[in-house]
Design goal:
Helix content: 10-25%
Order of helices and strands: EEEEEHH
Structural class: alpha+beta
Radius of gyration: 25 Å
Largest sheet: 3 strands, antiparallel
Shape: elongated
CATH class of one domain: Mainly Beta
CATH topology of one domain: Rubrerythrin, domain 2
Amino acid sequence: MEESKSNTGNVVFYCKDCEKIVDTNKVGSKYVYTCKLCGTKNVAFGTKKSIFSFFHVQDEPEVKPVEVSKTEEVIAIPTESTEEEVAEK
């Protein structure tokens, strides 16, 4: 999630086409912004609380790396099956 801090204070931008919080480019001197992902002007802006509430945006959970213990080993045990049984599966 990106929050724009340059000259906009604590404002977040929501692209209605991408349906996510995005970075934007300002168009002219008016309150018009384009999405950096898709390029459309269909961008809403407001405080994080107001945008998340109005558009029902949920915080993206942080992905934590899964730690694998080096002491555990996976051993494949071959089964006794005939070629006919394998073909049936």
